[in-house]
């Protein structure tokens, strides 16, 4: 087989204009604890021109669509980010579609979700549900995924055509599996490969077990992204085991690629991530490669052709 050369949809990236002061974690002091360590390098504007410049650095890579994911905009202006990103998309064509934010256990969640769904590019929401800092505390410190009031908000997603973007440590994915089984009509996409930060044999074994549990639910999908290790350059050799295990567990029909830029620019280049992913997946069939890099994201996010930046080949 050979490395993939077809069109790409980047299924998870961010944009921000810091002059709007929309993201407290990017503009306020002190800086917050962050899973990648010092993030001062991304406390700068990152707009469509910057994103397109990054995509252009990868030789032979043809990114023709993208998915914007919420950036922890200030909560007192909960719909401000949706209005801003839609204006940006209308003016620049980037992104193709949008994932917003909602606090699913908050008062007024019905009205908030209806307002999000009314935006034409809205496809889902993200609400980080918390969790234990280490696997050993997972049973004693469940996430909001198991909370009855939070689930009442979650139940409102599918009727509005929305899905959940789930960012949670892998040791809470059993809760996600239970949630997905209780709400089979609601789609969930696990962000950032289930966060396999611990690359010890024991850590990877736990991560694989957790992925297998949640992958049993057919309404759960996976983004292969967000697998930087602080202080370690992103290489195919470093990431090969994680990427191939994720594809094996979920199957190429339920996985999609994403950059998580500019966050992952802390320890990776855009060209490096996609060169590595193309090298790692070179032994997949042509159909499997296209599904992973393009077709799955286009179908999951319902991206119409007029929201792509170029027409994909038939």
TrEMBL record:
Name of the protein in its database record: TIM-barrel fold metal-dependent hydrolase
**Record carries keyword Calcium:** no
Q: Which organism is it from?
A: Actinopolymorpha pittospori
Give a GO molecular function annotation for the protein.
Answer: hydrolase activity
Family under the similarity heading: Belongs to the metallo-dependent hydrolases superfamily.
Q: Which residues form the Amidohydrolase-related domain?
A: 9-303
- Is the Mitochondrion keyword given for this protein? no
Check the record and name the InterPro entries matching this protein. Answer: Amidohydro-rel, Metal_Hydrolase, Metallo-dep_Lactonases
Per the UniProt record, one Pfam family is Amidohydro_2
Q: Which UniProt keywords apply?
A: Hydrolase
| Origin: domain of life | Bacteria
